[in-house]
Amino acid sequence: MTGASDLITSTDVLLTKEEVLNDYRIACESREVSMIGRKDVFMGRANFGVFGDGKELAQIAMSKVFRKGDFRSGYYRDQTFLAAVGGLNWQQFFAQLYAHPDINHDPFSAGRSMNAHYGNRWIDDKGEWLNQTELYNTVSDVSSTAGQMPRSIGLAYASKLFRENPDLQYLTKFSRNGNEVCFATIGDASTSQGMFFESINAAGVLQIPVIFSVWDDGYGISVPIEYQTTKSSISEALAGFQRKNGSNGIEIIVARAWNYTELIEAYQQAARYARDQHVPVLVHVIEVTQQLGHSTSGSHERYKSKKRLDFEHEFDCNLHLKEWILSNGYATEEEIKEVETKAKDTAKKSRNAAWTAYRESIRPDIETAIQLLKKAATESKHATAIAKLREELEHTENAVRREIICLVKKALVMMRQEAGLAKKEIISWLEKVAAENKDRFNTHLLSEYPTSPMYVKGIAPEYDERSTDLSGHEIINHYFDLLLSRDPRVFALGEDVGKIGDVNQGFAGLQEKYGEIRVTDAGIRETTIIGQGIGAAMRGLRPIVEIQYFDYIYYALATLTDDLASLRYRTVGGQLAPLIIRTRGHRLEGIWHSGSPMSAMLGSLRGIHVLVPRNFVQAAGFYNTILKGDDPALIIECLNGYRIKEKMPKNLSEICVPLGVPETLKKGEDITIVTYGSMCRIVMEAANQLTQVGIHAEVIDVQSLLPFDINHSIVESIKKTNRVIFADEDVPGGASAFMMQQVLDIQQAYRWLDSAPKAIAAQAHRPAYAADGDYFSKPSAETIFDAVYKMMHEARPKEFPDLYK
Length: 805
Ligand SMILES: Cc1ncc(C[n+]2csc(CCOP(=O)(O)OP(=O)(O)O)c2C)c(N)n1
Ligand SMILES: [Mg+2]
What we know:
By secondary structure, this protein is an alpha/beta fold. The protein folds into four domains: 2-331, Thiamin diphosphate (ThDP)-binding fold, Pyr/PP domains (Rossmann fold), CATH 3.40.50.970; 364-441, no CATH class; 453-647, Thiamin diphosphate (ThDP)-binding fold, Pyr/PP domains (Rossmann fold, 3-Layer(aba) Sandwich); 663-795, 3-Layer(aba) Sandwich (Rossmann fold), CATH 3.40.50. It is 42% helix and 12% strand. A seven-stranded parallel beta sheet has the order 1-8-9-5-4-2-3, with helices on both faces. A seven-stranded mixed beta sheet has the order 12-11-13-14-16-15-21, with helices on both faces. Strands 18-20-19-22-23 form a five-stranded mixed beta sheet, with helices on both faces. The chain binds thiamine diphosphate and magnesium ion. It comes from Emticicia agri.
């Protein structure tokens, strides 16, 4: 490890007076908005604030080497950087602080994220990619500490793919020869997270253009660095990763947060390594301060010593920049004063403009509600009480939409037994604002553009007399071969995916055919495998990344739920990562190979399609559907299906399975059994046995859990059978309960039931090992048979006498 000055190959930092004064202006404005923002929270204008004070200079230095086409993957301290590259103006900064739910005011999240969570928009209003090489790109920030790290690997990895794979040159919207660098930023305390270490290691192995900047202010809220980091220094702790004598690894540069030229030189050097040579770099920015404390949630005087507070005052980077400017003769005291005064003015004006715009956006609702309540009072028997509601609204300072609607609904309840024009107007106004607020707060969980995979039409498999039976793994292997040959954007990545073509040979022989860059082995690092996929998908590629066994998805769950699943929503449709996560599950054996944690997925992956094909022809159809669209998907293949024979369709590369469309596997009129995945075969076995005793079950494979039966076809089956069982091998109250809720509640199927509905699931514990462990842990054909028979016995006891009496 070396200090910045030892590493600099050119010490000529050429700075004009104009540039220096512009830097000082940005630093001053940034500090001012932090201070005003903090006051706004204390005045009750905003709920919470977290700011970038003390980090201004380092970020200005970083901005000088940030080019169009690059990506920032950072965290909530980065306001100065964003402002320096033009990715943020201060009015927008305040709009987000106030949670102004309008993309024209808070372009990062339209009020959906708390303040300091930035991001630019990558697509046009038709959902088509903009030219990223002409943008300063920022991935929308997540709050979870180190959550930005895994995707940083993918953002940088994409540059490697663009540089090394000539077939990708046509993707001119995304790269110019892989010259793009990913700038990842993180706080010192957050480097304690596993995600950070995993990312550093992955970068060192992969040799990709990522610059990790650690803003080291010595604290993670109140916990000092001694409790966070070995040797209290992340650059020392990571010294073994330093690249040397032709080894792989990372470059490590240290620079002080208050030293303008040292910082500029450090970033120039870092950018040369990363951009030119694709060598990852850690820039450890030390002696960082935090003038205003961690956030508005409390003051840092509670936990910082006087000595530390004095240090923070003395090493305020903005003061040091000012001194440097004066002592190097770049400007006079008067010129400096002028910059400071203007910065104050700009900050104040931006705040006022943002606040006024935010309040103006709510004012029409307040005025309308007051008018409605006035009119209601003239009509209603409850005039006095309604007048009180109106007064309450008139006297509520800075009323928000919730308060307005709440008061108007109270009036409606008072008028419940009355009729009249005013009441009618209230009802239609409530409907109108409900629709508007749905638009503001509930849209873009998934793609809402013409490019959505929901619009992909089904294409059925076709067979002829030459169609032969092949094992599931041969079918999917053939499919992946066709896919890799037709679409250079697709690559496959995961543990054992490369050389041996995955543990079940889905990619067998394909690395040899398409090269290591298309079919690639990865280390055992689920979180950054997902991150590698997310980042690459954000840059126009179509990765298929693999979680070797479904149960191990838990290692990556934080990244999947916090980052990938929320991406569209938190950017109001502005950002996307159409990643495919491939895994194999169901009917595995043993505690860590249960293959069935489906409800955990349903609970955490809204924003990702969750698909459960029962065989490999269906799986191929789902891959095609997802690849034609722009959403991410989790595709869970049936582990015990790889060896089962299926008929090979002649149009394998074209078939598409539409999302949210169940398939009826067997017709019947006595009972509907709803299931998915490997349970389809077990349920079919039970259904065939049931036929022999005169019970005709209709078996439905839902095929896709998210989205679920979009055309409400299951209720149609229940209208005929009047009985239903939901069966799977997840925990009790898991995905079987989810299916039940969808059908009974959303599809209102309870109206047609003659028997109590039933959910069949596995035992609550993880499954025991081996054939008997599986049999006594998960539902079997006998479990299904018994449950159906019991239901039929209760309904028609004469026909179906109790089996066990
Ligand atoms: C996974 C997770 N755990 C805890 C938190 C709560 N939290 C928010 S910021 C923070 C401290 C982060 O400190 P550091 O990384 O040094 O960044 P700094 O705020 O000092 O710039 C904590 C614990 C969180 N956001 N995410
Ligand atoms: Mg810190």
